[in-house]
Amino acid sequence: MQAKEVGLGYRIEWEGTLYLIPTPLVKINARNLFHSDIYPAIRWKDGREFYHLNGVNFPEDLWKKVVSKEMPFEEILAIKDIDQRTQAMRYGDVQKFFEHTKSTLLDSSDKGNELWFVPQSAGIFRIDAYFLKYKDPSTDKIYMSGIDPEIGQKKDADLSMAWKHGNIPLEDYKNMKHLVHES
Prior knowledge:
Layout: H1 2-5, E1 8-14, E2 17-22, E3 25-26, E4 42-43, E5 49-53, E6 56-58, H2 60-67, H3 73-77, H4 82-89, H5 94-100, E7 104-108, E8 114-118, E9 129-135, E10 142-147, H6 149-152, H7 157-164, H8 170-175
Antiparallel strand pairs: 1-2, 3-4, 4-5, 5-6, 7-8, 8-9, 9-10
């Protein structure tokens, strides 16, 4: 009990040896995955640190580049680990991604949605790809989401957003009002 009170986190007996591990400071996201884009997601008092974004482990130097939001898309797309690359894309400039991949804007709507076409010839994807670029009205953050090619080929940004919302009818989506404040 005294060991717990001074920071013992874990106690493991293995092959006749007792291992005592101190409690680390841990940061997690809403899905209970190790995550922090400000501090190491796991940190011990002795200085050992581990960097995670949405449960994906990063070396410290790569994590710092990613969370700076200044990493060029050429470097993001060159990350070999697909899980790290996927997380890094969330921190990159969406517009620079479209510029780097020589994408084509297919449609933009009054609701602020943009449908983009990323050709297979860009060398990023095995097939032609479609992405929806949109802004979260409550945070003003810009996001992009992959769109089913069958929907993307229809070249309608609002139809793509209706599909993203669970394939609701287009008219229902057009009649929706944006949530401006989370509260």
